[in-house]
Amino acid sequence: MRPELRPLVRSLSLSRARSGGGAVLSGAVGRVEIVATTTGIGTRAAARTAERVLDSTPVDHLIVVGIAGGIGPSVDIGDLVVPDLVIDLSTGTEYRPALLGYTAPRGTLVTSDELLVDQDEVVRLERQGVIAIDMETAAIAAVCEDRDCPWSVFRAISDRADDGSSDPAVFGLAGPDGCPNFPALVRFVFSKPWRVPELARLARGMKLAANTAASAAASALEKM
């Protein structure tokens, strides 16, 4: 999403550019040339974007940067997640990220197009070592591995997926690119004004997590 990209743009001083696959941002850290873009929300959008990027420019290493929902007591809001395993929750397919930087990988990240609302499922995942869930990484990993492109993940926890508060109505307040759906947001606020503090809390968590993930990715790139 754009809010996930902004801190990376600041950290790496990226600027607008164009490639054969469409508008992207570009820059460099030392001798490392960088292109960056958003994927949109969900596995299909993420896979299409990964394919577009890999088709449009030579890529030595692809990095997924952004937010995730936390599972279990080992992570809190704002914590960095560099998983040692990524699993597609719909198929069970497992993917192993490449090590990048000096952060020791730990835990499992699962990817799903569905909101995780079944708390029995949450407990099952936690017992299997899952510490975070997102909606894109496994799809990107599948594209990268199909094309023999190394990939890594820097996510950070923006909210909890294990406290029973996941709400499809709140999820619907963002458009496909993650930007606010203002008509839906206005309707939500007028119909449920008591939930405005919850929206503010989610926004703070997203900003903190996006900054954490971007800072970790930038630091890893500086060490390449």
Descriptive labels:
about 220 residues; Rossmann fold; three-stranded antiparallel sheet; 7 helices; 10 strands
What does this structure look like?
Helix content is 38%, strand content 24%. The chain has 224 residues and is of the alpha/beta class. The protein has a single domain, classed as Nucleoside phosphorylase domain (Rossmann fold, 3-Layer(aba) Sandwich). 34% of the residues are buried. The mean pLDDT is 88.
What is the global morphology?
Answer: globular
Strand order of the largest sheet: 5-10-4-9-8-6-7
| Total E-strand runs | 10
- Could you name the CATH topology? Rossmann fold
Topology:
Layout: H1 2-12, E1 15-19, E2 22-29, E3 32-36, H2 43-56, E4 62-70, E5 80-81, E6 85-88, E7 94-95, E8 108-111, H3 119-127, E9 130-134, H4 137-146, E10 151-160, H5 168-171, H6 182-191, H7 196-222
Parallel strand pairs: 4-10, 6-8, 8-9
Antiparallel strand pairs: 1-2, 2-3, 4-9, 5-10, 6-7
Helix pairs in contact: 1-7, 2-4
Short description:
The protein is of the alpha/beta class.
